[in-house]
Specification:
By secondary structure, the protein is of the alpha/beta class. It has 2 domains: 205 residues, 3-Layer(aba) Sandwich (Rossmann fold); 166 residues, 3-Layer(aba) Sandwich (Rossmann fold). It is 38% helix and 19% strand. It has 12 helices and 14 strands. The strands form 2 sheets. An 8-stranded mixed sheet has the order 3-4-2-1-5-6-7-8, sandwiched between helices. It has a 6-stranded parallel sheet with strand order 11-10-9-12-13-14, with helices on both faces. Helix 5 links the parallel strand 7 and strand 8. Helix 1 packs across helix 12, helix 2 runs parallel beside helix 3 and helix 6 crosses helix 10.
């Protein structure tokens, strides 16, 4: 069979613009499979005006109803169950019609059961990818690691996958700690494709030419720890140090109120949601990237910060730990510690040579995650596995 005739079925309840980072990663992986000469069918959820079928950048995207879903960024138990139910019948039809090389299942929950069943019934290898939040999220009461039944389901699905992959050392350790996984779990970081954008000067973006800008991108929710970042900024006496926050979320008003109480109104800019072009323009004119999350599965935004050469200050709880080499391309600090955040930020601003070194190192580091390289690692793993 010619390689161009080979086909892959990707299962993921989210695909951009629906959902978060897991959909972005799966889409990028799909593009790397396309470049390797495969046809890629992607079975995902339908919401609002999204079409039942369309071709997106060469990917055949099939969508099934996500009943009960209310937000673009977040799923809920009803919409996840809806995806599993309708996805099984659509997946069955696709598997009967096509001869797939393997199934690539993203998120052990909720998508894992679908990949397991289709793989079982059609004798297909199942490449299971876990993104972090599907196995462990300490900020959520309903995190699977807290519930005995979900722990058993996840253990079963991982153990009976053909190949199990996660993106960080922390995720692998959590699988062993909370689920007693004995199967070998491979660690493969997220694929990353550099974004091409038109650079702008600070003045064109409405920013001060001589300010020292911190930047952070993410949903404004408790898990992202922005309240501690604001406290850290208040501890930095140099008023030339300012903060750009890109994103929206349920904590936005609380954070704006906190910035007023800390007398930071003139030092913090809440920029809301922006498109990728504008996001990279802001990143490219900033000086330091800060990740203050209480927990992070991996942190795609760190790869974006690396692309433009930003030194990084990040918390030490999550997949980001694999990306940061202390003092070489950034610093790691404890969660909920504004003092440590402030000290590391000041250290970077106080050392021009350190900033230059971190810039060079990050622009080199990001090359490790090139989509073609990561896609090849996935293909080598699954094609050398057994059903």
């Amino acid at each position: 069979m010619e390689k161009k005739d080979k086909k892959i079925l990707i299962l993921n309840y989210e695909f951009p613009p629906l959902g978060g980072g897991g959909g972005v990663v799966a889409k990028e992986l799909a593009k790397s499979f396309l470049q390797a000469g495969y046809q890629v069918d992607y079975l995902t959820s339908r919401f609002a005006e999204l079409k039942k079928f369309e071709v997106v950048e060469g990917i055949n995207v099939f969508r099934v109803p996500a009943l009960g879903r209310k937000k673009w960024a977040e799923a809920n138990p009803i919409s996840m169950a809806s995806y599993l139910f309708f996805g099984f019948f659509k997946g069955w039809a696709l598997c009967r019609k096509n001869r797939y090389e393997f199934i690539n299942t993203h998120f052990v929950l909720p998508t894992g059961p679908l990949g397991f069943l289709l793989g079982l019934f059609f004798g297909l290898r199942n490449l299971l990818v876990m993104h972090g939040g599907d196995i462990y999220d300490p900020t959520k009461k309903m995190s699977p690691h807290r519930h005995w039944l979900l722990r058993k389901v996840i253990k079963f699905l991982v153990e009976f996958s053909s190949v199990a992959v996660t993106e960080s050392t922390e995720n692998k350790n959590n699988l062993i700690k909370y689920y007693q996984i004995k199967k070998e779990v491979e660690i493969i970081p997220h694929p990353y494709r550099p974004f091409i954008f038109k650079k702008e000067e600070r003045s064109a973006l409405g920013l001060e030419v001589d300010a020292k800008y911190l930047v952070s991108v993410g949903r404004l929710v408790t898990r992202k720890g922005y309240q501690y970042l604001l406290e850290a900024l208040a501890l930095i006496s140099d008023e030339k140090v300012k903060l750009l926050i890109i994103g929206t979320g349920s904590e936005e008003q609380n954070l704006k109120e906190q910035s007023r109480k800390l007398a930071l109104e003139n030092r913090v800019s809440f920029l809301g949601n922006v498109d990728n072009e504008k996001k990279f323009q802001y990143l490219s004119v900033a000086d330091v990237y800060v990740l203050s999350s209480l927990h992070e599965g991996f942190g795609i935004v760190l790869q974006e910060a690396m692309q433009v050469g930003l030194p990084i200050v990040a918390t030490n709880n999550g997949g980001q730990v694999d990306l940061i080499e202390e003092g070489e391309n950034g610093f790691l600090v404890p969660i909920k510690d504004p003092v440590a955040l402030a000290e590391r930020i000041k250290k970077i601003f106080g050392d021009d040579e350190l900033r230059k070194k971190m810039k060079i190192n990050n622009q080199e580091k990001v090359k490790e995650f090139e989509s073609e390289k990561i896609g090849k690692r996935y293909l080598d793993l699954i094609l050398n596995s057994k059903v």
